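Thread amino acids onto this structure.
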């Protein structure tokens, strides 16, 4: 429902009552079948278009973002956020893997980069929402394990097609250039005036 608080919820199945969210009285025969993550901090449904072999940024927009604390992780495109591990061949400026990367930015816009994708392909950009940990007593830091990155921000397409997508005739969604190159696209993005 629209008034569900931000957080993580156990998704349960009961043969007597069907699917339900844990939090209330669960039937005796309820079995946890997954976890549902509810967030309102980060914009989702994005498509990123970047070129391989070139340092570029990935940008995340939303509300109440914290540059020093918010993290993203890039995983292979066939994996699921919160389950998959960091993708091989995706490197930060210092040569490290893009795993649990922090950003620079503001409360509404984060810039993760420079990031270089060694090879073309499809990847997913996953976000760790610290709000998921509110009220949980854990003896570890937040956003340090692959399972913490459960919010799929969008798909990263790595190909030489970025120059083609700069031409509006070749795309059906609006795109904006990112700080270090590449494009951030989505249905609700206002295109840059020269695009």
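Threaded sequence (195 positions):
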């Amino acid at each position: 429902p629209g008034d569900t608080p931000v957080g993580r919820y156990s998704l349960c199945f009961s043969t007597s009552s069907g699917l339900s969210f844990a939090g209330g009285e669960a039937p005796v025969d309820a079995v946890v079948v997954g976890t549902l993550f509810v967030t309102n901090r980060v914009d989702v449904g994005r498509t990123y278009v970047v070129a391989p072999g070139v340092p570029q940024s990935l940008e995340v927009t939303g509300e109440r973002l914290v540059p020093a604390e918010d993290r993203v992780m890039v995983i292979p495109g066939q994996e699921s956020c919160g389950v998959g591990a960091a993708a091989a061949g995706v490197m930060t400026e210092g040569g490290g893997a893009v795993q649990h990367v922090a950003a620079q930015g503001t409360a509404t816009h984060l810039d993760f980069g420079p990031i270089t994708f060694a090879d073309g392909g499809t990847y997913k950009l996953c976000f760790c929402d610290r709000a998921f940990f509110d009220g949980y007593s854990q003896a570890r830091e937040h956003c340090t394990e692959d399972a913490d990155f459960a919010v799929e921000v969008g798909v990263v397409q790595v190909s030489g097609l970025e120059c083609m997508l700069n031409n509006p005739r070749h795309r059906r969604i609006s795109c904006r250039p990112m700080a270090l190159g590449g494009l951030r696209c989505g249905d609700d993005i206002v295109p840059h005036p020269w695009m």
